[in-house]
Amino acid sequence: MNLTTINFKPLGDARGSLVAIESDLGIPFPIRRVYYIFDTKTGVERGFHAHKKLQQIAVAVTGSCEMILDDGKEKESVCLDSSTKGLYIGPGFWRVMRNFTPDCVLLVLADRHYDESEYIRNYDEFLEWKKS
Fold it and tell me: CB within 8 A of 4, min separation 6: which ones?
């Protein structure tokens, strides 16, 4: 499995830092939706789905979490723990997010608007979909 990370250039001065994320400038798709996950309770795991076409970039803007990606053959775990590092998640990856720190805010940039029909929420159905 070949996962892609995107490094965001921090800008700043003595007052603090800033990261600018702009569609088509370092992001490999037009941004259509932005959301963030926060206040995840200790021990809670999230995700448990795949997308048929959706592309995403996940960034832990504060705190950290573990992202486990599964392409139907292999699984790989990535620790998201930097506000300057994004993880590109293309279509066809089952994802599980876990080990959220209490302060974790996970920002997600997506190339499509929300569409429930785009989700695969059953792992066995995901494996069958990957075969087709």
Answer: 87, 88
Provide the residue ranges of all domains of the chain, joining segments of one domain with +: 4-131
**pLDDT value, residue 25:** 84
Torsion of the alpha carbons at 54, 60, 65 and 70, rounded to the nearest 10: 20
**Upper half-sphere CA count for residue 127 (Cβ side, 13 Å):** 6
The residues that are catalytic are 49
Distance CA 7, CA 64 (A): 16
CA atoms within 13 A on the CB side of 98: 9
Kindly tell me if the per-residue pLDDT of 2 is higher than 80. no
The pTM score is: 0.92
Right CATH for 4-131 from 2.40.50.90, 2.60.120.10, 1.20.120.80, 3.40.50.720: 2.60.120.10
